[in-house]
Amino acid sequence: MISSISGIVKSISLNSVVVEVGGVGILIQVPNRVAISLSAGATASFHTYLVVREDALILFGFTDLIDRDFFELLLSVTGIGPKVAQAILSGSDSATIATAISTSNLKTLESFPGLGKKGAQRLVLELKDKVAGFASKNANKSLSLGNQVENALQGLGYSAKDAASMVSQVLSS
After folding, report:
1. Domains held by the chain: number
2. What residues make up the domain containing 77?
């Protein structure tokens, strides 16, 4: 499993980016709100999810770990595949979507591409009890920032245990 990728953004399209890592260009499918925020030539880091198909390997990337986790949660819903999950996350951030699910706001959920009335109802039915951790934007930002700092510390040579300990000490103070 490829968990994360960092490199230089070489090209950007509506739902994907090519990131050069060690001289190799890697195509990463991203929500369009992420693609819009990037610029060619800039360094970017993505938390990734690899989908293995009979005819393809597709890498989905997210700038926030919480969005990748929410993507995986969306995939657990019957009838929601990676393309629909990506389209849902293209429409809004995970906190807003989680709030719509927890409050059973079908109108908001139906507005996402690829998700009709039945799909929205299925999301609410299967995920209503599982989205509480995603609904709080402040918790998401702290978690996301903490994970980013942990990853940076690990990149500097600290062990995962030491990095987690340092981040938890800073966040608790």
Report:
1. 3
2. 66-135
